[in-house]
Amino acid sequence: MAAPALFDADRWTDIALRRDGPVAWVTLNRPAKANAVRPQMQDELAQALEGLDRDREVRVVILEAAGERVFSAGFDMSEQHRPESSRDWDDLTRASAGVCMKIWDMDKPVICTVQGHAIAFGCLLALICDLTIATEEAWFSEPEIRHGTLTPMIIMPWLTHMKAVHEFYYTGDAMPARRALELGLINRVVPAAELAPTAERMARRIANAPAYTLLMAKRALRQAYEIMGFRGIQGAHRYLDTYLLDSHGDPRKEELKRIRREDGLRAFLEARDGPYRDG
Question: Which domain holds residue 71?
């Protein structure tokens, strides 16, 4: 079914959208670039999520990604230009957190399906959805600490216990799907062939509820999390992330920045992740 008139989908290049009755699918659609997120994709995601939230025919949204090996490699560092001022850094972190808050603020459930690796911002997109289903080959990681930054939002304290949160954020190590399931970060682990069918069955099961009741259920749950401080913490965390992104003088961080500038992204990733391989 064609996208509704609420969308400017003809101009989209980085995502795709389709609908079938009460269920809509939003697809990260840069498989040749490991579905890496760039400003264009952020803008398109924001448009799609806003439009679907206003569309009363849609009751459940499925967020998925094209390709087989990677859900999303996070921000497209090959296209990312370093901001020139603190205000530019602030704009960058605001936009990044803003896309995830679109999912958080939607009045309808969002189910994420994850195949392969969900890295950095890709991991955040997967975990902030209401429900997450992963394949047995899926991995989740937030490696930002390794190059001197933070995740754009901090969500794991609302999903699992303190010790697991600390290990995940302090090391940047990747977590396999089965471990993520044990910790309550995701809902199910299924064979790759069952990923899309499982998500659709779950979406249609949820969509059976009266539409307004479903809307109020999500609002009530969201309000409960926000009473526990979720929204306030995100604002404070974003300011810390902005400050850290614009910080300088740390020898390790400066050396990694030099390697990326002079030797390229591949050398940067090797220098960043190499020290962790024997851990």
Answer: 9-247
* DSSP string for residues in 36-76: -B-HHHHHHHHHHHHHHHH-TT--EEEEEESSSSEEE-SB-
In a domain, 220, yes or no: yes
Lowest-confidence region among 71-80, 110-119, 204-213: 71-80
Domain count, the chain: 1
Confidence of residue 79 (pLDDT cuts 50, 70, 90): low
For 121, counting Cβ atoms within 10 Å of its Cβ (0-12 exposed, 13-18 middle, 19+ buried), the class is buried
d(CA 218, CA 183): 22
Confidence of residue 2 (pLDDT cuts 50, 70, 90): very low
The structure's pTM equals 0.94
